[in-house]
Amino acid sequence: SALGLGGILADDMGLGKTIQVIAVLLRLQRATAQAGHDPRSRVRVDGPSLLIAPASLIANWKGEIQRFAPGLRVAFAHPSEPGSSAWRQAKTSEEFLDGQDLVITTYGQAARLEWMTAKIWNLLVLDEAQAIKNAGSKQTQAIKVLRARARIALTGTPVENRLGELWSIFDFLNPGLLGNLTEFGRYVKRLEGAETPDFAPLRQLVSPYLLRRLKTDRRILPDLPEKT
Q1: Whether 75 contacts 128, CB under 8 Å
Q2: CA–CA separation, 34 vs 38, rounded Å?
Q3: Which H or E run contains 139?
Q4: Is 179 left (phi over 0), alpha (psi -120 to 50) or beta?
Q5: Do 62 and 94 contact (CB within 8 A), yes or no?
Q6: Cβ-proximal residues to 47 (8 Å cutoff; 6+ apart), any chain
Q7: DSSP E strands: which ranges in the chain?
Q8: I need a surface site. Which of 85, 123, 186, 193 has the fewest CB within 10 A?
Q9: Three-class SS of residue 160?
Q10: Interval 131-148: pLDDT, tens
Q11: What pLDDT, in 10s, does the model give residues 62-111?
């Protein structure tokens, strides 16, 4: 995140994507605290991180943070959570954000709340990032307007149906890495038209920004029993 680069955490379901992100948030919290006491520090300290998740997963994030990182100061910008309604209005958003390490909201709310666009977030995390796989959808365009110093996408399925979905996620993470959509579309057509498609160049290009581990890899979970 210090370099401002984004990445996809694409581990198989059950391998701890949530815990890994919580660990990153705790590291940012410590770095921010240290920077506040060290005038030479290059860590930016002016603002929390933002996590966007489907509404059905907010309770899971809340429970995991309470269990593993109770010291993390978290605010929820969603009507399902009790507490202050200051998050609804731009004029009270600073009061809502004051002292927070993390704000959790949903894709629907992030697309509606204009003050989220005005903020530069420390870290912007998308859970179930396949929600922005369609580059032309209004939801995807609204999420890509958000600004942050670094970005992380969490998805066990970075490509569900076509390679264009991968382009859309990387356009959010590191715009320009895969060219524009037209250029990438031409590249995919050449791949599809080849008798033996060579995916190696694309794999090499994205591999520094993508971590994917599978439950079938015995090195990852040596004690996991065979599926029955």
Answers
A1: no
A2: 6
A3: helix 138-144
A4: left
A5: no
A6: 97, 119, 120, 121, 122
A7: 7-9, 49-52, 74-77, 102-105, 120-121, 124-127, 147-148, 151-154, 210-211
A8: 193
A9: coil
A10: 999 998 999 999 999 999
A11: 999 999 999 999 999 898 877 667 787 777 788 888 889 999 999 999 99
Task: At 137, list the tokens.
Answer: 């959808």
Residues in the chain: 228
The rounded distance, in Å, linking the Cα atoms of 131 and 46 is 28
**DSSP-derived 3-state class of residue 127:** strand
DSSP character string of 74-115: EEEESTTS-S--GGGSGGGHHHHHTT-SEEEE-HHHHHH-HH
> How far is it, in rounded angstroms, from Cα 130 to Cα 207?
18
Question: Is 56 strand, coil or helix?
Answer: helix
